[in-house]
């Protein structure tokens, strides 16, 4: 006999899940990848502020000579540490991505310049249907307190070049707060060794016609120490990467405009 009303799940073998429990079971798992190089004074601040919903934290250390790894393990005993022998941020990130097992992967710096609480914005965008989400310091609600005149000029030039060459409308480019679906990682075919990996990730996401979006982010000054970024050296490498991707590798289709996921 058919019944219109729901059956009562009160039998002895029935397990009833609350709404919060059901959401926990069904929600995508989130991995956070953090590249480090001598960040013993900063890494604890980052780890202590990661959202509770983060399921996996992967620290990729590039041969630190201080106590970065020891402090990270003290603060977060469940952390997965990958020791990367190849130098460069790109090599570290690629190693971290390979080790990640979450449905979503978010990369964040270890110097305290990026607010871990903002990871929620990236996850929300991915859950809404985006494949690739990049932080923007120049989107409405974003900002920066740590950009020199040279860095800003370089970032503006590269962003403009990408927007012209790929017919996109990015508001920011050289910023390493990025999240993406792990299933889309093979489409990016990453191979960069240094800071230029951020440019490589973005243009290859465009080439692969991934659903791309930007979320506002605020960049603070690093908490302690000196940045490993060299504006001239790494800017030139980013430019070479852009030109190689556009004119040497196969031509790309037109990308969706950031903020308008398909």
List keywords for this structure.
7-stranded mixed beta sheet, about 260 residues, 9 strands, alpha/beta, 9 helices
Write a structural description:
With 262 residues, this protein is α/β, with parallel strands linked by helices. It has nine helices and nine strands. The strands form two sheets. A seven-stranded mixed beta sheet has the order 3-2-1-4-7-5-8, with helices on both faces. 42% of the residues are buried.
Give me the secondary-structure category.
alpha/beta
Global Rg: 20 Å
Stretches where pLDDT is under 50 for at least 5 consecutive residues are 1-22, 252-262
Apparent shape: globular
Q: Roughly what fraction of the amino acids lie in strands?
A: 5-15%
What is the rounded distance between the termini? 44 Å
User: What's the count of strands?
Assistant: 9
- Fraction in helix: 25-40%
Largest sheet properties: 7 strands, mixed
Summarize the helix and strand pattern as letters: HEHEHEHEHEEHEHHEEH
Mean pLDDT: 83
Q: Taking strands numbered 1, 2, ... along the chain, how are they ordered across the largest sheet?
A: 3-2-1-4-7-5-8
Q: Total number of helical segments?
A: 9
Task: Annotate the secondary structure layout.
Elements: H1 19-26, E1 30-36, H2 43-48, E2 56-61, H3 68-75, E3 80-83, H4 89-99, E4 104-107, H5 119-127, E5 132-136, E6 143-144, H6 149-166, E7 178-181, H7 185-188, H8 197-207, E8 212-216, E9 218-219, H9 231-248
Parallel strand pairs: 1-2, 1-4, 2-3, 5-8, 6-9
Antiparallel strand pairs: 4-7, 5-7
């Amino acid at each position: 006999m058919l019944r219109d009303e729901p059956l009562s799940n009160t039998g002895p073998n029935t397990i009833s899940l609350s709404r919060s429990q059901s959401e926990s079971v069904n929600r995508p798992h989130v991995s956070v990848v953090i590249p480090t190089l001598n960040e013993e004074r900063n890494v604890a601040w980052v780890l202590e502020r990661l959202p509770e919903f983060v399921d996996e934290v992967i620290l990729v250390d590039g041969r630190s000579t201080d106590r970065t790894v020891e402090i990270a393990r003290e603060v977060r005993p469940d952390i997965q540490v990958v020791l990367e022998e190849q130098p460069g941020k790109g090599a570290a990130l690629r190693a971290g991505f390979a080790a990640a097992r979450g449905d979503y992967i978010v990369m964040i710096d270890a110097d305290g310049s990026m607010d871990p609480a903002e990871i929620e914005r990236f996850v929300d965008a991915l859950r809404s249907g985006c494949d690739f989400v990049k932080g923007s310091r120049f989107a409405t609600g974003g900002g920066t307190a740590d950009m020199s005149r040279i860095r800003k000029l370089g970032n503006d030039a590269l962003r403009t070049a990408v927007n012209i060459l790929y017919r996109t409308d990015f508001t920011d480019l050289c910023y390493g707060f990025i999240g993406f679906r792990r299933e889309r990682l093979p489409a990016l075919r990453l191979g960069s060794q240094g800071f230029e990996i951020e440019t490589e990730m973005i243009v290859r996401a465009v080439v692969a016609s991934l659903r791309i979006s930007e979320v506002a982010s605020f960049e603070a000054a690093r908490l302690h120490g000196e940045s490993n970024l060299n504006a001239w050296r790494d800017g030139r490498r980013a430019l070479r990467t852009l030109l190689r991707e556009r004119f040497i590798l196969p031509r790309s289709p037109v990308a969706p405009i950031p903020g308008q996921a398909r």
